C-alpha cells in the first residue's frame, strides 16, 4: 500500500473516531469530513486496483470501526430513513438524503452492513437446511432458488464509494464502465448461502436486470468471485425497457409455468422479490444506496 | 406523582444514562438493570392509572433520552435482528431474544420508536395528499383506507412494559385483561395520519384480529384516544381461529368485491398488509415486540 494512502486511511480512522464522539458535529468542521470522504474513495479505489481477489468492502472494515451514526441535525434521521427504505415505506427515491452521507459511509464501510447481511444469510441458510426435499427424483429436479446479482452476490459499493455513496444522481454510463471491468467483489454472506445451496441439490438461478450484452463479463465476474455451478443466468434482453418488478415477475412466472418450484429468492430490492410467482420464501438484503422500481 | 415513584424514575434515568456509556455492560451489574426494568414497569403503570388521557409511552419519552442501544455481546446484534424482523426476513419468532431486552427498552421508551413511526406517517400523509380523487361522486364514495388497531393506532406497550418487553412468552389472558381496561394509549403519529384522512374524503376501515366480544371496549378505547368518524370496524368472529394473514386477506377481498378501492393500508405486521387484495399502497409501522402470523 502506498504511504500516501496509508496516511489518508489514518486520517480517516481519526476522523471517524472523532465524529463518533460528536467532535465533528459543528458546521465549521464539515470540510474535514469531505477530506475523510476523499480518503475513503481513494482507499476503495486502491483495494480494487491492487487486490482483485479480496472483498473490497470487507477488507476496509477493520480500519473504520463500527461506530453508530451520529444523530443527524437536519431532515429525517438516518436510522428512521433507512428503516423506512428497507421496509418499502419510502419508495421511488432518487438519491440518499445529503445529510445522511456521513451515516451511510459509516454504515457501508463499518460493521453494520455486513452484520445486517449476515443475519439475512443465516436465516436463509437455516431455512434451506430445514427444507425437506420431498417427492421423487423428478420433483426434486425442479426445485430452484433465485439470486439477484448486484448488491446481492456482487457489490458495486466500490463504484458508489467514488460517486457520493448514493447521494448524487446515478450516472449510468460510468456505472456501466465499472461493471464492465468485471471486478465487483463478492458479498461474502450471500456467497455462504450460495455454497450451502450448491450442496443441497436445489438448483441456482440468477435473475438480474443486467442486460444480455453484459453476459460474458457477468459470468467472468461471478466465477472470479467464487460463484460457479449455476443452472441458469437470466439477463434482461437488450431491447427490454420494463421495470425490474415487471421483468422479474414475468421470468419467475415462466419458471413456474415450466414446472419449477421456487423454494427461495434473495435480493436487495423489493422489486427483486415481489409481484408474481414469488416462491415459498423471500429474503431481503439491505441496500440503502439506491432504489430500483 | 408519588415520591417513591419519582425516585424510581430518577434511578431509571441514571441507569439508562450509565448504560448508554457502557458502564452497565459487566455481568455483575445486571441486577441494576433488573431494578431499572421494575422502575419502568412501575412508571408505565403509574402513568396509565393516574392520567388516562395522556399517551403513556410518549409521556415517558423525555425522561429516558434517546441513547443508541449498546453493542450486544451475545447472539445476533439488536440492530440487525430488528431490521431482519421489520423486513420480514426473520419470521415466526416467539419472543425477543433475551440479550436484546436492554436495547428494546431503550428503543420503545426512547426517541427511536416514535421517530421511526413518524417517518412512516409522514410518507403516508404525503401519499394521501398527493392521491387524486378522480372519478365521479359514486366512485369517490368507494375509496377506503385500512387501519390495523394494536400497535397501529393503539399501543399495548404499557402492558408489555410490565411483562418483559416481549422477551417472555405472551400470556393471552393477562393481555386480554389489559385490553379490556380500554385505556390503551393512541400512537400519536398514526393519529395524525388518521386526522389527515378524515378530511380527505377517503373512508376509514379498521381491520383487526381483536374478537367481536371486544367490540364495545374497542370502540370506547378508540373514541377515548381521539379516533372517531370511522366507516367500518371489522373484528374477527369469536369462533374464527384462522391466522391474521388469512382472515385479513379475506376481509379485504370482500371489500374489493363490494366495489371498494383500497387506497392505502397501514399496520405493524406484514400479516396486516400482504396476502390478497393488498390495495394501492401499504405502510409498515415498526413492531419489534411480537410477531403475528
TrEMBL record, chains A, B:
Domain of life per record: Eukaryota
InterPro entries: Acid_phosphat_B-like, HAD-like_sf, HAD_sf
CDD domains: HAD_VSP
Keyword Ribonucleoprotein assigned: no
Gene3D superfamilies named among the record's database cross-references: HAD superfamily/HAD-like
Keyword terms: Signal
Signal peptide (UniProt feature, chain positions): 1-25
Protein name: Acid phosphatase 1
Amino acid at each position: 500500500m502506498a504511504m500516501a494512502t496509508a496516511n489518508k486511511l489514518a486520517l480517516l480512522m481519526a476522523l471517524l473516531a472523532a465524529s463518533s464522539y460528536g467532535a465533528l458535529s459543528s458546521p465549521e468542521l464539515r470540510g474535514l469530513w469531505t477530506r475523510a470522504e476523499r480518503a475513503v474513495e481513494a482507499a476503495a479505489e486502491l483495494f480494487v486496483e491492487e487486490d482483485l481477489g479480496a472483498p473490497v468492502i470487507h477488507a476496509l472494515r477493520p480500519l473504520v470501526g463500527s461506530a453508530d451514526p451520529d444523530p443527524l441535525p437536519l431532515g429525517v434521521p438516518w436510522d428512521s430513513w433507512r428503516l423506512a427504505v428497507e421496509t418499502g415505506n419510502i419508495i421511488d427515491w432518487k438519491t440518499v438524503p445529503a445529510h445522511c452521507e456521513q451515516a451511510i459511509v459509516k454504515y457501508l464501510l463499518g460493521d453494520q452492513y455486513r452484520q445486517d447481511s449476515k443475519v439475512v444469510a443465516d436465516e436463509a441458510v437455516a431455512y434451506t437446511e430445514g427444507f425437506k426435499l420431498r417427492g421423487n427424483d423428478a420433483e426434486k429436479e425442479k426445485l430452484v432458488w433465485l439470486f439477484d446479482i448486484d448488491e446481492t452476490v456482487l457489490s458495486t459499493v466500490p463504484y458508489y464509494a467514488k460517486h457520493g455513496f448514493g447521494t448524487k444522481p446515478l450516472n449510468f454510463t460510468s456505472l456501466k464502465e465499472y461493471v464492465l471491468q468485471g471486478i465487483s467483489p463478492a458479498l461474502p454472506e450471500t456467497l455462504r448461502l450460495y455454497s450451502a445451496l450448491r450442496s443441497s441439490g436445489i438448483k441456482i438461478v440468477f435473475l438480474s436486470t443486467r442486460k444480455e450484452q453484459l453476459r460474458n463479463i457477468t459470468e467472468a465476474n461471478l466465477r472470479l468471485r467464487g460463484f460457479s455451478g449455476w443452472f441458469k443466468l437470466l439477463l434482461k434482453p437488450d431491447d427490454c425497457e420494463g421495470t425490474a418488478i415487471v421483468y422479474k415477475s414475468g421470468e419467475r412466472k415462466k419458471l413456474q409455468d415450466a414446472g419449477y418450484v421456487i423454494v427461495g429468492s434473495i435480493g436487495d430490492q423489493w422489486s427483486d422479490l415481489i409481484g408474481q410467482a414469488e416462491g415459498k420464501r423471500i429474503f431481503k438484503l439491505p441496500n440503502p444506496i439506491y432504489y430500483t422500481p
